[in-house]
Design goal:
Layout: H1 23-47, E1 52-53, E2 56-57, H2 60-79, H3 83-86, H4 88-100, H5 120-140
């Protein structure tokens, strides 16, 4: 502008713009979403646990759930430096598996079966927790 219009000093109006969210809010939001992903992973792994190939039980969802948990914990480690905080997706996964083991209305059960599937819950917990525990252990000892 010409010198005739620009005689006053520039003023800031902080009330016209909203401040950008801080990094802490983004960190909490991402860790919350990772915890929700842990719950969804537990539900899907539990519902697909009694899958079969022909007449043979094939609980591949336990291994896929463990690998997914390892990926969630790995992602959480990129947003926090605390292994305890990074374990939140794993803890929500374990809590969801524990809640799904309770009987539902009408005594409906999710985990159960005959033969090998009687040990499906144990297999789900073992294969679901060992890979993320290895990721956390490797991070803590690095």
């Amino acid at each position: 502008m010409g010198h005739r219009f620009d005689r006053q000093r520039d003023r800031q109006h902080p009330d016209l713009t909203s401040p950008a969210p801080s990094a802490e809010y983004r960190r909490v939001a991402v860790l919350t979403l990772l915890a929700i992903d842990g719950v969804l992973c537990a539900i899907l792994a539990s519902f697909f646990l009694p899958s079969y190939i022909g007449t043979w039980p094939f609980p591949i969802s336990a291994l896929i759930g463990g690998l997914m948990n390892a990926a969630l914990v790995w992602a959480a480690l990129h947003w926090t430096s605390s292994p305890r905080t990074a374990a939140v997706p794993l803890l929500t996964w374990l809590l969801t598996v524990a809640l799904l083991s309770l009987g539902g209305p009408g005594d409906d059960i999710i985990y159960g079966g005959a033969g090998v599937m009687a040990y499906g819950t144990l297999l789900l917990i073992a294969l679901g927790t060992l890979p993320p525990a290895a990721v956390l252990w490797r991070y803590a000892n690095a």
